[in-house]
Design a protein that fits this description.
The chain has helices spanning about 35-55, 65-95, 100-120, 120-125, 125-130, 140-185, 190-215, 220-250, 255-280, 295-305, 315-335, 340-370, 375-410, 415-430, 430-455, 460-490, 495-525, 560-585, 595-610, 620-645, 655-675, 680-720, 745-750, 755-760. It is mostly helical. The chain is globular and about 90 Å long. Among the domains are: about 35-120 and about 135-160, Four Helix Bundle (Hemerythrin (Met), subunit A) (Up-down Bundle), CATH 1.20.120.230; about 165-280, Alpha-catenin/vinculin-like (Four Helix Bundle (Hemerythrin (Met), subunit A), Up-down Bundle); about 295-405, Nucleotidyltransferases  domain 2 (Four Helix Bundle (Hemerythrin (Met), subunit A)); about 560-720, Alpha-catenin/vinculin-like (Four Helix Bundle (Hemerythrin (Met), subunit A), Up-down Bundle), CATH 1.20.120. It has 24 helices and no strands.
């Protein structure tokens, strides 16, 4: 393929500029495809062309075969024609790349027409008689056209991706330029004017980077992007209040420090977004996080288990070094003041045992290299199994130590007592009390930073590891910012702006604590093998108004006022999901169909709760209605399962369960009808949203009563009291979670477009404050 010319962003496009369609067509798989939109454009095209190239050359060709080949050739040509139309529209909107884009489009169109001609039935019937070149007489011509087509289509995609990257960089530069102006303003009137512009620029940046984040294939990059954008969301409001405080109290040192901290953090986040988008790392690899224990254990086990296939692959020094590195990281746990004595002793014991098992494995391994006896092979297999079993036990113990400590700390700090006291003493102007409680906040910060550090070691996936690093950084940075905001308020206790500023930083702290509870659940889900499904979201190409492929109705979102109205209902739904999660965790058999349906419904209800906050995977009201319909269907399936279960009960035990089932059935039907009903207009849509969430709440309330009842009946049966007549035949249908809304990645993907627009709208109140 022709590479895109000298732009630094060229190599970071959805297709790497170094990736070219190779000599053989099948090597299209070697393309370095980095975004989902590029992949979904190229892969079907490669598949269709490969079908043409790989057809079997038979002496006799039926009409059916000829027509099938023609259909594929025409489909390729039509698809290329539509693609070229989009490419030309993009070219017309971006003059600097117009010439390159048009050349690539012309090449693609010509190649598509060539393939259509070579596969035309009129030419295929008797090609030998008139000397015409067809797919049967000269396959190399089709291969040549296919290479040209893939090369030109890939070039169009690279150029389109460069435009997207350029848009993000340009948007970032606008934000930075306006931030510099905001830092220098000296009057409220000037600040209001510039911040209004800044807010609009941040909203644009949010939309561009949100599309890019969701389009990335690399989950690690996606998580880093989500973390950076979450920082920008929170810091936008912080920048507003910190700047206002500085303007009101220009001689206050703590206010200046507070404001500078926000600007510095925003610049770092903006820089990281550009690093991800352009796939560059100006500071080298040094800013990569050190190896986590879960990664080290995974690599170590792979090497150990690899001995079965290749006795000579790793060296014994290599294995010993890998284990030493893992055990060195376990010192983070054993040295921690927050690790319990029992966990510490068990970790040390398992570390010692791991060394012994590896020494024994190395000994058997060395013998196996010299003697190929059956007994030695069996001894080696036993040694491999024992080493892996020991390292798995160590992993389980570390996970238990980190998650139990995190659960205790989050529960202990859930009342936010230190923050509440700081606010009260600040308003009182009590500098001595503020100093005392800032020390307590610093201690709390150190605890939470260490908690995040230990959770990172057991996070289980790279995206969750990045989320732990982001949380650790948030606590480390936000703690001192709360302290400087509290000191400012204590020095100016009657200042409404200083009080508002402290409130904003405290809310960010509380929000991060809340996020930690979700993160903890996700880490446990990964450890136990439970992970939710994710929705695919594509963003490229984006030729604006000329894009014929993206003509859809504008999705409806709740505005700020509607979100506020429905927030209380969302919180109530959230509490119910927590209750149901607690109930399902009690069941010994997590594969029980009642439990599985309960978990699935709780997950979907949680995604609806996130929607009420403007977060999560449900972005529009239509997403919510679709989710409500699926939820109602799942609840209906649960009713069938419960009826089957009730048939196994003695008559004395049936009535109460049947009563609950009878309550559930009409609500499920009402919810399905409500979700399917078409409405028009803003007010009608909001009423439908409210009704869907209300009915979901009612279903969840009934479910929270059904689960403990079923659990009680099953426990009686296990105790041997004969409450079940025969083994239950209610395991035919396996369920799958439709949407897991409790993902932190999903939450951060929502990056505050809504909240940013809310900040901008609130500017009208600035001068009055």
């Amino acid at each position: 393929m022709a590479t895109s010319p000298g732009s630094s962003s060229g190599s970071s496009s959805g297709v790497s500029s170094s990736a070219s369609p190779p000599g053989a067509l099948g090597a299209g798989a070697a393309l370095d495809i980095r975004t989902r939109s590029v992949e979904q454009t190229l892969v079907p095209l490669v598949s269709q062309i490969t079908t043409l190239i790989n057809h079997k050359d038979k002496p006799k060709r039926s009409d059916k075969t000829l027509q099938a080949i023609q259909r594929v050739g025409q489909a390729v040509n039509l698809a290329v024609g539509r693609f070229v139309t989009v490419g030309e529209a993009i070219a017309n909107e971006n003059r600097e790349l117009k010439e390159e884009m048009n050349i690539a489009c012309i090449e693609a169109k010509r190649a598509g027409e060539t393939i259509a001609h070579l596969t035309d039935v009129a030419n295929l019937d008797h090609p030998e008689s008139d000397g015409r070149i067809t797919i049967f007489t000269d396959k190399t011509q089709v291969v040549k056209a296919a290479r040209l087509l893939l090369s030109s289509v890939t070039k169009v995609l690279v150029l389109a991706d460069r435009i997207v990257i350029k848009q993000i960089i340009t948007s970032r530069n606008k934000v930075l330029a306006t931030m510099e102006q905001l830092e220098k303003v000296s009057s409220f009137q000037e600040f209001v004017q510039i911040f209004s512009q800044f807010g609009n620029e941040m909203v644009e940046f949010a939309h561009l980077t949100g599309d890019r984040q969701n389009d990335l294939k690399d989950e690690k990059k996606k998580a880093r992007m989500a973390a950076s954008r979450a920082v920008l969301e929170k810091c936008t409001m912080m920048l507003l209040t910190a700047s206002k405080t500085c303007l009101r109290h220009p001689d206050c040192e703590s206010a200046r420090v507070n404001k500078e901290g926000v600007f510095h953090r925003m610049r770092l986040a903006l820089e990281q977004v550009i690093e991800i988008v352009t796939d560059s790392r100006p500071n080298g690899e040094n800013n990569m996080a050190p190896l986590s224990i879960y990664t080290g254990i995974k690599e170590f086990k792979n090497k150990v288990e690899g001995l079965r296939e290749n006795l000579y692959f790793p060296s014994k020094e290599n294995l010993s070094t890998m284990l030493e590195l893992i055990l060195e990281h376990t010192e983070d746990f054993t040295d921690s003041a927050y690790t319990s004595h029992e966990h510490r002793e068990r970790i040390l014991e398992l570390s010692k045992q791991s060394k012994m098992e590896l020494e024994h494995l190395v000994s058997v391994w060395m013998q196996a290299q010299n003697q190929r006896m059956k007994d030695i092979a069996e001894d080696l297999e036993v040694a491999i199994l024992k080493t892996c079993q020991c390292i798995n036990e160590l992993k389980r113990e570390l996970h238990s130590a980190a998650t139990s400590m995190a659960a205790e700390l989050l529960k202990y700090h859930a009342d936010h007592m230190v923050l509440k006291t700081l606010k009260i003493t600040g308003v009182e102007g009590n500098l001595e009390a503020v100093a005392e409680y800032t020390c307590k906040l610093s201690e709390q910060k150190e605890q939470l930073v260490e908690m995040c550090h230990l959770l990172r070691h057991v996070s289980g996936t790279e995206p969750l590891e990045i989320t732990c690093i982001h949380a650790e950084d948030t606590f480390r940075v936000t703690g001192p910012q709360i302290i400087s905001a509290a000191e400012t308020l204590a020095l100016h206790p009657s200042s409404k702006i200083a009080k508002e500023n402290l409130d904003v930083f405290c809310e960010a702290w509380e929000s991060q604590l809340s996020d930690m509870s979700i993160l903890l659940r996700e880490i446990n889900d990964v450890f136990e093998g439970r992970r939710g499904e994710k929705r695919v979201y594509l963003s490229l190409p984006r030729p604006g108004k000329h894009n014929a492929n993206l003509k859809a109705l504008k999705p409806v979102k709740l505005d700020t006022e509607e979100q506020a109205k429905i927030a209380k209902l969302g919180v109530e739904l959230h509490l119910l999901t927590s209750d149901i999660d607690s109930e399902t965790e009690k069941w010994e058999d997590q594969e029980n169909e009642i439990v599985r349906y309960g978990q699935s419904m709780s997950s979907m209800a949680y995604s609806m709760y996130l929607f009420t906050r403007g977060e999560g995977l449900l972005k529009t009201t239509q997403d919510l209605f679709n989710q409500a319909e699926i939820f109602a269907t799942e609840a209906t399936k649960l009713v069938s399962t419960l009826h089957a279960f009730s048939n196994q009960l003695e008559d004395d035990d049936k009535p109460l369960l049947l009563l609950k089932i009878d309550k559930l059935i009409p609500v499920c039907q009402q919810l399905q009808i409500t979700a399917k009903t078409t409405v028009q207009g803003k007010n009608a849509t909001f009423i439908k949203v409210d009704a869907c969430i209300q009915k979901t709440k009612v279903v969840m309330t009934i479910l929270s009563q059904i689960l403990p009842l079923c659990y009680k009946l099953l426990r009686k049966q296990k105790a041997g009291n004969g409450y079940l007549r025969s083994p239950p035949p209610w395991r035919e249908n396996r369920i799958q979670t439709k949407i897991n809304g409790e993902s932190l990645e999903g939450k951060t993907e929502a990056f505050g477009v809504i909240s940013l627009e809310h900040h901008v709208a609130n500017l009208t109140f600035l001068e009055s404050k």
